[in-house]
């Protein structure tokens, strides 16, 4: 459920989890799912060792587009789980599959 970078006894670890999908309703007709993104690290480069934030799929799309637009970026960006026009907020398997895809995106 997370990726860790390990090598030596003085290893610095960054762990990330995507969990706790919740349906958010704007009004009767408009709803979406957001996910809790959790990060834990012992890295000296982070002042906060643990953080949590909620994000929705469209914010992952925005992030990937911004990273892609960075002309200095010389790495292949991981893919996001595909946008499904028939995605159902009430389909637990679809929600779980998307959550796993978002997890893989963040790990890479």
TrEMBL record:
Bilayer disposition of the protein: Peripheral membrane protein
Localization of this protein: Cytoplasm; Endomembrane system; Endosome
UniProt xrefs under InterPro entries: PX_dom (IPR001683), PX_dom_sf (IPR036871), SNX10/11 (IPR043544)
Protein name: Sorting nexin-10B
Main subcellular location: cytoplasm
Family of this protein: Belongs to the sorting nexin family.
Cross-referenced PROSITE patterns: PX
Pfam families, alphabetized: PX
PANTHER family, alphabetized: PX DOMAIN-CONTAINING PROTEIN, SORTING NEXIN-10B
Keywords associated with the record: Cytoplasm, Endosome, Lipid-binding, Membrane, Protein transport, Transport
Gene3D superfamilies, per database record: Phox-like domain
Domain PX: residue ranges: 13-108
UniProt key word Transport: yes
